[in-house]
Amino acid sequence: MIDGLRRLEYRGYDSAGVALVAPGAPLSSAKKAGKLVNLVTELEENPLPPATAAIGHTRWATHGAPNDLNAHPHLADGGQLAVIHNGIVENFAVLKKELLADGVTFLSETDTEVAAHLLAKEHAATGDLTEAMRRVALRLEGTFTLLAVHADQPDTVVGARHDSPLVVGLGEGENFLGSDVAAFIAYTREALELDQDQIVTITADKVSVIDFAGEPVEPRRFTVDWDAEAAEKGGFASFMDKEIHDQPQAVGDTLLGRTDIDGRLILDDLRIDEAVLRSVDKIIVIACGTAAYAGHVAKYAIEHWCRIPVEVELAHEFRYRDPVVNEKTLVVAVTQSGETMDTLMAVRHAREQGAKVVSIVNTHGSTIPRESDAVLYTHAGPEIAVASTKAFLSQITAAYLLGLYLAQLRGNKFPDEIAEIFDDLKAMPAKIQEVIDRGGRVREIARWMSDTSSVLFLGRHVGFPVAMEGALKLKELAYIHAEGFAAGELKHGPIALIEPGQPVFVIVPSPRGRDSLHSKVISNIQEIRARGARTLVIAEDGDDAVLPFADEVFWVPQSPTLLAPLLTVVPLQIFACELATARGLDVDQPRNLAKSVTVE
Ligand code: M6R
User: What domains lie within the chain, and their CATH numbers?
Assistant: First the structure.
């Protein structure tokens, strides 16, 4: 159980807990606030007895502070029933009132405890944990994955799923449930996808699934395409460092198998009628955080190649602003986890309005691809560090493939033009490797700057989303003020922030790219330098024009303008990772965050 929780801890680390059952024994449990290591210490000091079935949880707090009492599992039925929960029970206040009136005593401030006591009530009425869970699931509003064990059924774990992730791992003489396959990857790669609104019951040698109406259902089986080793640090100091080094392979793997024998692009996991794709008159990219910045980068390329207007919208803003979406709109949902609740809700809204949805997803067996009309998988492998790195690069790559495919289908580009861009893309993994190999100087500067209190990032064109991503990495990892600006916007206000010594990263576009873009950014560097900024410039090999205005230059190999983000973001990832490490912070699990944000 602890091993599984360790692999899932990246999803939330405010507290951790376990509950165990064994034949003829009372239920036993332990829980501790803080990271999993606190629970491990507690269990070393006070070991629990052997068990036949167990549930365990790492928490990202929503209702109630991250303390011992609010940690999961929550117990009911005199301590003989235990429940863990992901999501939010939105009607918990009404249900709590009802339970209080029945004389139930609550020990925590969580919404989850309501589910535990309701389950105990239904279990007492039915004598069966599966049926009790089904009845409870019908009463809960909001989002939930619930797992429960009861001392009376020591061979059984029961789960319920409604808009929150849950997958089944199929072992030999053992079965597993997890928020994602990482939980059981060390034991089996064979898995079952559950759908929404289903109840699953597992024992050591049986898995049965019913829907909320009680009807049996046959879940889809799949094999996970990575193994436990891919989810280990492999000798790196942190998962983030490892994942930065995984990036050449992540991009290369995302490009694999995408052409037919005539060299034409094929996206065989794209299941939307070609006529529909030809009639698309607008693309809306929906995503959050880093994935949204990948969408911003993609906008420049897709508009340029396909001549289709592309909007990029934060998923949580999308459905609340009554967006203009119809059958001619193609919505592209970008998500590493495939579980981000904001993105899932935006996908549903888009489809209700008649739009077709293509999702760009890294995690097989996740919810968003199943609810999309088509999927383009990135092949980045498991991303464990909370801060996204290789997912970002592979999302840009996949979005570019989609753009080129649309350009091919709609005749916006000749086949030889598409082949040329595709060849440029195939050259990127080696160039990304070169940027990583040159990372020593960035690390050195990051360590020198470990006590800095603010860093600004400037970029133009595709460099603009890269600047925002560089700032996000620094904020989330090092907890210091960081902001990304469009370099041209500076003079409209933010330049007031520049004072002597203010460090500013500037992403300089290729001098071989669009006329004047390069010289405009050089002017922007001069403007901030004249006001005392310390300029840290990311520029292409051979671009000597930056030298007079740069306090430091981080060189990247030459590449076409639109592909440059795959290179220019890498020094910024390394910078944030190293600076946060120098400040003594945990770069894999930054404070207050969780890897998959499965609540709205
Ligand atoms: O799993 P998703 O790609 O949907 O996650 C979206 C964001 O939460 C995520 O990109 C987040 O901003 C990054 N982990 C930050 O590094």
Answer: 2-229 (3.60.20.10), 233-426 (3.40.50.10490), 432-600 (3.40.50.10490)
